[in-house]
Design brief:
single chain, about 110 residues, alpha+beta, 5-stranded mixed beta sheet, globular
Amino acid sequence: NGVKVLASFIKGADPKSLRGMIDQLKDKLKSAVIVLATTSDGKVSVAAGVTADLTNRFKAGEIVSLVCSKVGGKGGGRPDMAMGGGSDVAALPGALEQVLPWIKGQTN
């Protein structure tokens, strides 16, 4: 529906580097909703970013909460950037698959 969405697992990423990756992707994509996740030491780390032009429609904190709820955790943050985590590593692929249907549901 005219919104770029990137939801991806980044293997071997440092959880603290996810925020920087999102900032770089925002600059490159110009208008997008971005969700990145990684695992480390049996824990899931999730970061979401929404470019400024889309924060009136999508909130990064809501997206992180959605993904983290599926991996046994929680998270939150600002409309343009949010972070969270959980402990159910096995549930992460399914949690990331929920992002696109959620975005589509918000655009209808």
